Amino acid sequence: MAPHSLLDGHDDGPTSNGLPENGLGVQPARQAFNAFSNNKSHLKKTPAEDVHDLVCVGFGPASLAVAVALHDSINSGKLHNANTGSTPKVLFLEKQPKFAWHAGMLLPGAKMQISFIKDMASLRDPTSQFTFLNYLHKNGRLVEFTNLNTFLPSRVEYEDYLRWCASFFEDVVRYNSEVVSVSPAKESDANGSVSAFTVTSKDPKTGELTTYRSKNVLLAIGGQPSIPKSLPSNHPRVIHSSQYAHLVPQILNNQSSPYRVAVIGAGQSAAEIFNNIQVLYPNSRTSLIMRSEFLKPSDDSPLSAEERYSLLEGARSTNYGVVRLELIERLYEKMYDQRRELGSDETKWPHRIMGGTDVVGFDSKGDQLRLTVRPLTSARTAVGDVMQEDEVLEVDLVIAATGYQRQSHLRMIEDVAHLLPEASEPNGAIPSSGFGRKFSEAKINDRPVRVSRNYSVQFSPGKVAPGSGIWLQGCCEGTHGVSPFNRRRIFSHH
Ligand SMILES: Cc1cc2nc3c(=O)[nH]c(=O)nc-3n(C[C@H](O)[C@H](O)[C@H](O)COP(=O)(O)OP(=O)(O)OC[C@H]3O[C@@H](n4cnc5c(N)ncnc54)[C@H](O)[C@@H]3O)c2cc1C
Ligand SMILES: NC(=O)c1ccc[n+]([C@@H]2O[C@H](COP(=O)([O-])OP(=O)(O)OC[C@H]3O[C@@H](n4cnc5c(N)ncnc54)[C@H](OP(=O)(O)O)[C@@H]3O)[C@@H](O)[C@H]2O)c1
Question: Which reaction does it catalyse (predicted)?
């Protein structure tokens, strides 16, 4: 992503302000030292009423990578106006009360799924202060981490690294700010083209609305929990995997109780939760209900995600509905032990993996839940005698580890619909598919939301001024591949 307006009016290049070519000369290096000694980045607070250069919606790894890249660019003199001393006017709006990275899934022992080298900085600039290795160094663990002989830190440690990076940007992040809409502001250029957008955010606690104006808006809001239609969306004992660590200890508050828990899904979240419940509640009975017949191992082969995208169906096996091989092996061993100890009738096992099964019904009486599950591929289904194949599971808790949807940015930008091209208007850009393996063109009011190679939303010619725009990160998988969605390549895109 290269929001040009951030460069407009600034010296473009390290030599223009007298700094050495490598951008790591005396002055920036001293700035970097100062930045690290006072725990502040080079991005400075902008008065709320000013027109910003960039407002980023969401402050997860994608936006954090942008923040780090901007800091590094200022540090190297590329984004620093030597005459005025000014830096880009940037703001990050985050709905959570503080920085947290999928905190509801921070389970003991959970490892990262990518090498730490794909951190917030290393692949773009290994000399950045914001590398994972520098984090280890600053926290006195570099040697000890090296002795672990791994590229995969724990998720807990990696979240701490991300929080450490985020702490440098406190001046330019507003937490408790949930963005509800992005609309055209009244600013326009000489040709009448929209040159700024109004971003409206809500304080989730008080409901208070605040507006900001910005030439550029980056939507990096990640995915939103997706729960199957067969389940109620607001039952206190039906939760999504993203709430797991927050809610399960409250709902199941006696570790020795023989709780019955159903986990739905066949991805990494489902497998980790299925495993973790058994550890946390040794007397529990658990069922892993999944549409696929088997847990599929993730593909970590050393091809780039782009190369795999052309080889595999949507590169899904690099990312979705797949599980780390070690965890599959651990779960298989558990199933084997049950077979050895209890015999082959799986209904007698405390822990079952119910492959090729779908949830077709749900009802509840108080805290008692009944799930009806149906085999997907039985011969009986083929002759229509499905009811006899159904099984009713009585459980205390249902955990839907059923992934995330990535469409809510469309609702957020509804008010810019009139600036989008008509469906028939070709503009050379690529349709944005939102999320999902089934490619479908994202639309607002029947107008296609098309995204350029550089992630900018394509507006009708002349509607939006050069140097202004809306940018999408993490919701263009169908067109831009899977990498921008996860962190493995987030950084190199900025
Ligand atoms: C449990 C889990 C573990 C993962 N582990 C890995 C891994 O090891 N390696 C890997 O490559 N990928 C992993 N991923 C994939 C994950 O998508 C990326 O790691 C990464 O989080 C994507 O960053 P993001 O900033 O695009 O989205 P997110 O991390 O989802 O961040 C989006 C941010 O936007 C905020 N937000 C949302 N809506 C609004 C709004 N309306 N207003 C303001 N703020 C808003 C959210 O609160 C959040 O902080 C994992 C995903 C999960 C769920
Ligand atoms: N330790 C870690 O680093 C860690 C931990 C957890 C997650 N993650 C990452 O986070 C991302 C999301 O993982 P995830 O496991 O939460 O989601 P996911 O990979 O998208 O998997 C979702 C699962 O839910 C199933 N599902 C979806 N809708 C369903 C429905 N209506 N009924 C039944 N099943 C349904 C899917 O099955 P179908 O295939 O049948 O649709 C799939 O098995 C991935 O990138 C993953 O690698 C990482």
Answer: L-ornithine + NADPH + O2 = N(5)-hydroxy-L-ornithine + NADP(+) + H2O; L-ornithine + NADH + O2 = N(5)-hydroxy-L-ornithine + NAD(+) + H2O
Residues 183 and 43 in one domain: yes
| Rounded Cα–Cα distance for residues 393 and 370 (Å) | 6
CATH number reported for the structural domain that contains residue 380 in this entry? 3.50.50.60
pLDDT in tens, 17-27: 222 222 222 23
Residue 400 CA to ligand 2 center (angstroms) comes to: 9
Q: State residue 20's pLDDT score.
A: 27
Beta-carbon contacts of 145 under 8 Å, excluding residues fewer than 6 positions away, are 136, 153
**Residue 135, domain member (yes or no):** no
User: Is there a single domain that holds both residue 457 and residue 345?
Assistant: no
Q: Give pLDDT tens digits for 243-270.
A: 999 999 999 999 999 999 999 999 999 9
Calculate the CA dihedral of residues 69, 74, 75, 76 and round it to 10 degrees: 90
Say what the pTM is. Answer: 0.88
Say yes or no to pLDDT of 169 above 60: yes
Q: Classify strands 368-375 and 357-365 as parallel, antiparallel or unpaired.
A: antiparallel
CB proximity list for 411: less than 8 A, separation 6 or greater: none
Of all ligands present, the nearest one to the C-alpha of 182 is 1
pLDDT surpasses 50 at 283: yes
- Residue 63 Cα: closest atom of ligand 1: 25
384 within 8 A of 225, measured Cβ to Cβ: no
The residue behind tokens 């005025």 is: 84
Q: Are residue 314 and residue 385 in the same domain, yes or no?
A: yes
